[in-house]
Amino acid sequence: MADKKSFYITTPIYYPSNRLHVGNSYTTVAADAMARFKRLTGYRVWFLTGTDEHGQKIQRQAEAAGKPTAEFVDEIVDWIKELWEELDICYDDFIRTSEPRHTEKVARMFTRFYEQGDIYKGKYEGWYCTPCEAYWTERQMDEGNCPDCGRKVELIDEEAYFFRMSRYAQALIDHIEANPEFILPPSRKNEMINNFLKPGLEDLCVSRTSFDWGIPVPFDPDHVIYVWLDALSNYITALGYGEEGSLHEVFWPADVQLIGKDILRFHTIYWPIFLMALGEPLPKTVFGHGWLMLEEGKMSKSKGNAIDPRVLAERYSSDALRYFLLREIPFGQDGIFSLESFITRINNDLANDLGNLVSRTLTMAERYFDGVLPEPTAYDERADEDLRSTALQIPDAVESEMEQMKISDALTEIWLLVRSSNKYIDDNMPWNLAKDPEKRDRLGTVIYNLIESIRFVAVIIQPFIPRTPDSIWEQIGIKDDPELQSWASLGKWGAMKPGTTVKRGDDLFPRLNMQAEIREMRGDPPVEETNVPEKEEEQEGLINLEYFQKVDLRVAKVISAESVPKSDKLLKIEVNVGEGKNRQVVAGIAKHYKPEELVDQSVLFVANLKPAKLRGVLSQGMILAATDQDGKLALSTVDQDLPPGSRVS
Ligand code: ME8
């Protein structure tokens, strides 16, 4: 343990002013994936999160709820802890700024700053944004509003203590310039230097007197310490700052402090200056990630348009939500959360790519080898090398992406292996090998390689979707073998032991019906009564003719087809359905047909399906195709030449 390299990662400590939304969960899930990844790859990790409980905003919110502030905060903190449990957040410590282990240290720091002349007493006359707990000068404001959140600011006029920021400004500029990794992504660095540091730092007001929900200034208790000075200190108070033999000695400076870009200024200007005044080293990296937006704008707890992460995790699983958050948004940039894109990710990446790989492979292992892992005796260089070398290079590729905090890219790398494995099934067609007894050894090798590849995937996805690997270990028969679940086991190909009992389990991620989910989650009324089959008929799995005839089935002629950018599954197809005007549909058949193979084909078509968008591309109908249980797909068509638009009944 002692010789392991240490890794300290933090999230912002959240205001328990309201329940958290899926945007706050994003930061914490990302930090959790990093922490788990570092643990998996052999680091001694400390992962800190917590709550920022003081300040005017919380006090007002509690008053509005008609509750004593401490009670109000306790309830939300409990809710937040339950959320983190549901999302499998494996923090090592949860700091609450109301705890004495924090308040006592902050009070001592404040006294030290005062005694060493960093803090002096004066009078503050100026503007304050309570939702952001931020001071603004006239020059910084945006038409009289808070430049960060756009809300109204308040004029305050009170006696206050000030921190001499200017004392440390040049040292901070020098540090930022000399350490390109200090502020990431790099684009955020210039914003801080040009907008805040270069124009000259004003002294920062660090106490308030007009409310009392905070840490009192020890030598002047009419004042409470400014909530940001209080909150930022959590990153070291939680480590036992100032105590002999504390975690602070092991883990400070932090390796990564993960925050949203909205609070970059506090973390790359105020925080380092406080640390310099304490004579402490600065964190190695402060990473300001982008925002998760809703189609209608930024989410926020107070705007009330947030999406409840607990509802999403309960309905779709914590792994699905984690996967979406980590995969959908290139880390550092803004991204959009929509139910459509969430469900598309679940269906495409998790159910089709990963889920099908596991279920197809295990079905074949059971069918052809009675669930006993065969020995790989018939290696075929040409057919197998691609899969083997992809698997062996993915761990390094993932590690390199994670070093740069490119979490989404790390997942893209892993999915290369998932997709290569699916392609390996399609290329090697085990169902054909099974027909020829002479090819039994080859069939065994193909199945072995697939299961080994699934093991690689399961090991590498642990930090991102930690529940899914448990189900895979069970299915491939290594649930009691930690060695085979370890990162170190990925150094060579072929660690699975022939003879292991494997067994297909439940589908990892059931496919979802997009329209039904959207209806349900948006609280839309259920489909009309007439669309629903009679109760007894439903029980028998039958529908009546009238019900069937509601589906407008037609012959459609393909006019043109092309790939959908950034998708290896989807084709955009223009069809003539005899309406005088062509229709556009998006079909998930790119793995089975080349665009040019489709042109001029007459296919069966559902003409009255509600239009939907796939990958942002409008789809006005559906082309019918049949799929066998190994995933082979064939378009359904007519065996005579019929004009486009002909009805199918
Ligand atoms: O600012 N997309 O707490 P907070 C992505 N207590 N991330 C988002 C987001 C969104 N739409 N909305 C919020 C505070 N976040 C202070 C922090 S730290 C010493 C004190 C994330 O509850 C993002 O990381 O308002 C942002 O920085 C954090 O939640 C703010 O949470």
List keywords for this structure.
649 residues; alpha/beta; Rossmann fold; Isoleucyl-tRNA Synthetase, Domain 1; six-stranded parallel β-sheet; five-stranded antiparallel β-sheet; 22 helices; 17% strand
Please provide a written account of the structure.
With 649 residues, this protein is an alpha/beta fold. Among the domains are: 1-96 and 290-333, HUPs (Rossmann fold, 3-Layer(aba) Sandwich); 338-491, Isoleucyl-tRNA Synthetase, Domain 1 (Orthogonal Bundle); 544-649, Nucleic acid-binding proteins (OB fold (Dihydrolipoamide Acetyltransferase, E2P), Beta Barrel). Helix content is 41%, strand content 17%. It contains 22 helices and 24 strands. The strands form 7 sheets. The chain has a 6-stranded parallel sheet, sandwiched between helices. Strands 18-17-16-19-22 form a 5-stranded antiparallel sheet. Strands 5-4-6-8 form a 4-stranded antiparallel sheet. β1, α1 and β2 form a beta-alpha-beta unit. α14 (381-403) runs antiparallel to α15. The structure holds ligand ME8.
